[in-house]
Amino acid sequence: MDRDVALRDYLSRLLSWGEAHMTFDSAVAEFPPDQMNARPPNVPYTPWQLLEHMRITQWDILGFIRDRRHMSPEWPEGYWPAKEEQAGEARWRETIQAFREDLAALQALASDPTTDLYAPIPHGDGQTTLREILLAADHNSFHLGEFAILRQVMGSWPKDREE
User: Fold this and answer.
1) What does the pLDDT average to over 15-41?
2) How far apart are CA 61 and CA 70, in angstroms?
3) Do residues 106 and 133 make contact, with C-beta atoms less than 8 angstroms apart?
4) S-S: 86 plus which of 14, 37, 64, 106, CB 3.0-4.6 Å?
5) Residues 80, 36: Cα–Cα separation, whole Å
């Protein structure tokens, strides 16, 4: 297999996990709606706020890659919803759907042979598309593991779930 094709395939798979990590869809499946705004002990955010943080960060990375006019949120407060902000079921679904859409867009960028993974992003300060894709995968993986642990602590996994 051509090395470029292999790398692009690997990056696309890395973004969606499923090999060494739980998938995003597996992590959020059957989440109890009455717990989306619950604050587990010693955790400063809710499960929804954590997912929204993941969505905002991934959106920002994608926007930075694609659009020189993209404005990143203020760090760090702009990357999290307000501490008192809550989601209803519609907002929960919107967060999940927007995350999935931006993830698919990152995968498409990674897979597209016309995307120069190594060229510096013209409006950045040395970042490349490859670096940004790896950053998104790393950030999402970290917080998805955190989300899974929150589910364990909160007892929000389905009773029939297999480990």
Assistant:
1) 90
2) 10
3) yes
4) 37
5) 15
- CA distance linking residue 135 with residue 147, whole number of Å: 18
Cα distance between residue 23 and residue 141, in whole Å? 9
Query: pLDDT value at position 162?
Result: 67
d(CA 140, CA 74) in angstroms, rounded, equals 19
Kindly compute the dihedral angle of the four CA atoms of residues 53, 56, 57, 61, in this order, to the nearest 10 degrees: 170
Separation between Cα atoms, residue 152 and residue 108, nearest integer Å: 33
Nearest of 120, 154, 136 to residue 47 by alpha carbon: 154
Residue 115 pLDDT: 96
List, in order, residues 6 or more apart from 25 with CB less than 8 Å away: 100
Which tokens sit at 63? 């926007």
For residue 1, pLDDT beyond 90: no
Has this prediction a pTM greater than 0.90? yes
